[in-house]
Amino acid sequence: MLNFSPSCERNQQPIFEQLQGFLADSRHVLEVGSGSGQHALFFARRMAWLNWQPTELAMNYEVLRANLMAEGGDNILLPRMLDVCQSRWDVDQADVIFTANTLHIMGWPQVECFFAGAAANIEPGGQLIVYGPFRYNGEYTSASNAEFERWLQQRDPASGIRNFEAVNELADAAGLKLRADVTMPANNQLLVWGRSE
Ligand SMILES: C[S@@+](CC[C@H](N)C(=O)[O-])C[C@H]1O[C@@H](n2cnc3c(N)ncnc32)[C@H](O)[C@@H]1O
Questions:
Q1: Is 35 close to ligand 1, i.e. is its CB under 6 Å away?
Q2: What is the pLDDT of residues 66-98, one digit of tens each?
Q3: Residue of 164, 135, 170, 130 whose CA lies nearest to 152
Q4: Could you count the other beta carbons within 10 Å of the beta carbon of residue 169?
Q5: Phi, psi of 98 (to 5 degrees)
Q6: Domain that holds residue 135
Q7: Ligand 1 centroid vs 187 CA: distance in angstroms?
Q8: How many independent structural domains does the chain possess?
Q9: 32, 40, 167, 191: which could form a disulfide with 54 (CB 3.0–4.6 Å)?
Q10: Does 1 map to a domain?
Q11: Does the beta carbon of 5 sit less than 6 angstroms from any atom of ligand 1?
Q12: How far does Cα 135 stand from its chain's mean position?
């Protein structure tokens, strides 16, 4: 496994325990920013009723492809290149768009692209599911998240832990309504929005 992620190893089981309920009636998942592909592998193996479409930025694509070629399963599709700000997302079918730990890595313009692109590509009745750390009314949910954001911004001043209210406003403006906000281990959230029929 290239670029193995220890955090994926820790969070995949708790995320799966939530996803299996939200995805019980879903068929086609598009994952944005799949990284090493660990989540794609872990979730697709446990939810055999789904097709899982991993994606990555061009610069990170080869690592994802190599990992999935080495370990992929029947319901994991060949990964595709996707930058959330590209003019048209290369998506066949998606009743779910899922992303983990990406919104605090992207700059805010990319976060805006993400919600616009997701809303445009989720089928009516589908869901958008986002996992990661968030602030609420500007407050961190833990001291460790405040420390994490300082570290993030030393690397890239455009990155940062997003305000829940700001992302929910983007979702709302794009026609996505909040269905669930699940508090997860290690001061993370799982946010679920639905697109009406
Ligand atoms: C911290 S990694 C998370 C990877 C994986 N989802 C996980 O949970 O381990 C953040 C990911 O966001 C992706 N990313 C950053 N900017 C992006 C953009 N504009 N469009 C699509 N993906 C992006 C990066 O390529 C990277 O794989």
A1: yes
A2: 999 999 789 999 999 999 999 999 998 899 999
A3: 135
A4: 12
A5: -125, 140
A6: 6-195
A7: 19
A8: 1
A9: 40
A10: no
A11: yes
A12: 17
